Structure formats: structure tokens, C-alpha cells
């Protein structure tokens, strides 16, 4: 699918929210991959030739090969995500290609999903629904399907940026006892929230719930490994809504199998989608979601429009609403 316009923009999916696509159509010729699924690599390399801009998602690897294929007219790569680990940032900078992303607009949606996943895991909702649907629900029982509550608990948040802070504000309303956070720098917002900065090890050892909200960078790759899980309470619940690469997945599986920790709730995995034969799907103490952290209708529409406006601003030589510096 294509449209006419001054600039040529390659869009890597046909199911991008329409708001951003309509904005681009006013000034750009759009080349769209015609399936609501990630574009195959060979098709991507062929169709991106001559593009002035790329509208991509976190499933699209933007590396030297793609940039070479696009050619010297490529001015901007804009991703409909807050994460940008799928983009070779250094290569783009060396070529003078600007990068757009979508911070802020998905904060509330991701924080809401984080709380939903935490509650679903701790209160064992998927297990309980399965029992109700398959005959396991025989009668009320005092200890059946019980799980830990948030009230009076210690919650540790790793990564205290916009999303981490939004999660902290929400868990505070559940009458938690203490909110701890681990971050490279002190966050002034923590004082208003009532969160206390601690070391990573202190957070692991003291928290009843450990929530990963940090970006995936070299320093956080497999931050949650065997050593980390062994430092956590045996009653702890681990939640990850950041990136799958922050976790050594084999170590997590072992920790869940051996009851090193109580349970885990994951919105992100490695790889994505997770193979159906993954042990994570077979463990009763693990809830896995298909990376839907930002999947509120409002958030996705706003992300699409912001991505389009990033592209248009870059192509017109203007200040981008959200440029990665």
C-alpha cells in the first residue's frame, strides 16, 4: 500500500493506529508492509530503499544493514515505543539520522498494566479462573487459592523513571508499608512519593514484591540472574514489564521450579513471542502476558500520532516533539 506526497516514508506494519498514518498521508508517500505482523527481513531491506523516514516498532531491528538499504536520503527513524534498544543509535548518529520515540504517553498505560499483572500473579487469578472453569472449584476453603496482599508489604522498584514512579504512586494507594527503589541517580520525586533509595542487593533482600521498570542497556542486561533471585525472599514475587533482556530467563525458570521465589508475572520475555513449549507457560506460579504494557486504546493512538509528528518534524527540519538526544 502506498500514498502520494513530498517525502517517502516506510511503515513496517499495516496495523499501526490510524491517527499517525493519516497525519503522514498529508505530506508523505507511504510504503506500508501489507500484513499486521512484523515485516520479513528480506522484504524490509527491499522496500525501504530510497525512504526519507522509517515508522517502525520495537519488533523491527534497525541496524547498519537497514540503514545501508535505505540509502543516503534517510533522515529519520521513528519508533512507536519508549524503548529503542532495537535501533543502532550510534550508527544513526554517525550518519546524521534523527531518532524519534514515544516517552511519557505510555506511562499511565504501562503502570496500570504493571499493577494488573502484579495483582493477577499475587492473587493467582489465572489459576483461580482455570479451577472455576474445569471443576476444581468444589466449595469455599480457608487456604485454597490464597496469595500475598499488598497491604503492609515492602515493594521494591528497579528503575525509577517515569514508569517506575507511576507504579510507585499506584502501589502506595494499597497501603504498602515501604516502597524501595534502585536507580543510578537519586530521584527528587521519590520524597513526595515516600520511596527510599537503596542498593540493588538491599532491595532484593527486603522486598516482598520486586518490580522491574528499568530500561534495557548494557548495565541492566540479565540484571536479574541466578545470584539476584537467590538474594530475594522465598516468598517474593517478581514482576517484569520492562524488557525481557533484563532477565536471565533460564535462571528465572530454575528459581520458580525450586521455589527460590514464590512467583513471577511477565509482560516481556526472550524471545517474543515466547515459544509455546516454553517452561514458563507450564509453571503454575508464572503469569505470562504478550507484551501489552502500553495497549490501552488511548495510549496507542497517541503513540502513533507522536511517531508521525516526530517524522514530519525531522523531514521539515523542525524540532521533534520527542527526539532521542
Automatic annotation (TrEMBL):
Q: GO MF annotations for this entry?
A: glyoxylate reductase (NADPH) activity; hydroxypyruvate reductase (NADH) activity; NAD binding
Q: Which CDD domains match?
A: GDH
Q: Give yes or no: UniProt keyword Metal-binding.
A: no
Swiss-Prot/TrEMBL keywords = Oxidoreductase
Positions of the D-isomer specific 2-hydroxyacid dehydrogenase NAD-binding domain? 115-293
A GO CC annotation recorded here is: cytosol
Task: Give the domain of life.
Answer: Eukaryota
**Which positions fall inside the D-isomer specific 2-hydroxyacid dehydrogenase catalytic domain?**
17-322
Pfam families assigned: 2-Hacid_dh, 2-Hacid_dh_C
Family, according to the entry, reads as follows: Belongs to the D-isomer specific 2-hydroxyacid dehydrogenase family.
Query: What PANTHER family does the record tag this protein with?
Result: 2-HYDROXYACID DEHYDROGENASE-RELATED, GLYOXYLATE REDUCTASE_HYDROXYPYRUVATE REDUCTASE
What is the protein name stated in its UniProt record?
Glyoxylate reductase/hydroxypyruvate reductase
Amino acid at each position: 500500500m502506498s500514498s502520494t506526497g513530498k517525502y517517502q516514508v516506510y511503515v513496517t506494519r499495516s496495523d499501526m493506529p490510524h491517527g499517525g498514518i493519516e497525519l503522514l498521508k498529508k505530506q508523505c508517500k507511504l510504503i506500508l508492509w501489507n500484513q499486521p505482523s512484523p515485516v520479513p527481513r528480506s522484504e524490509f531491506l527491499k522496500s525501504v530503499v530510497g525512504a526519507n523516514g522509517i515508522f517502525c516498532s520495537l519488533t523491527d531491528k534497525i541496524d547498519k544493514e537497514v540503514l545501508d538499504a535505505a540509502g543516503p536520503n534517510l533522515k529519520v527513524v521513528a519508533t512507536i515505543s519508549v524503548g529503542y534498544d532495537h535501533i543502532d543509535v550510534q550508527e544513526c548518529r554517525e550518519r546524521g539520522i534523527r531518532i524519534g520515540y514515544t516517552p511519557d504517553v505510555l506511562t499511565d498505560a504501562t503502570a496500570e498494566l504493571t499493577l494488573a499483572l502484579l495483582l493477577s500473579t499475587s492473587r493467582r487469578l489465572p489459576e483461580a479462573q482455570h479451577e472455576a472453569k474445569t471443576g476444581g472449584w468444589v466449595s469455599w476453603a480457608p487456604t485454597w487459592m490464597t496469595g500475598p496482599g499488598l497491604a503492609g508489604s515492602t515493594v521494591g522498584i528497579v528503575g525509577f523513571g517515569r514508569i517506575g514512579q507511576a507504579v510507585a504512586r499506584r502501589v502506595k494507594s494499597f497501603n504498602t508499608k515501604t516502597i524501595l527503589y534502585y536507580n543510578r541517580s537519586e530521584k527528587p520525586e521519590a520524597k513526595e512519593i515516600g520511596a527510599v533509595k537503596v542498593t540493588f542487593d538491599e532491595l532484593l533482600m527486603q522486598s516482598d514484591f520486586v518490580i522491574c521498570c528499568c530500561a534495557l542497556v548494557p548495565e541492566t542486561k540479565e540484571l536479574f540472574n541466578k545470584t539476584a533471585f537467590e538474594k530475594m525472599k522465598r516468598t517474593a514475587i517478581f514482576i517484569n514489564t520492562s524488557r525481557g533482556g533484563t532477565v536471565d530467563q533460564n535462571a528465572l525458570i530454575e528459581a520458580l521450579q525450586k521455589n527460590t521465589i514464590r512467583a513471577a508475572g511477565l509482560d516481556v520475555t526472550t524471545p517474543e513471542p515466547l515459544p509455546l513449549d516454553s517452561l514458563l507457560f507450564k509453571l503454575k506460579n508464572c503469569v505470562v502476558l504478550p507484551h501489552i504494557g502500553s495497549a490501552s486504546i488511548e495510549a496507542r493512538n497517541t503513540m502513533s500520532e507522536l511517531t508521525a509528528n516526530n517524522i514530519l518534524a525531522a523531514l521539515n527540519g523542525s524540532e521533534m516533539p520527542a527526539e532521542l538526544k
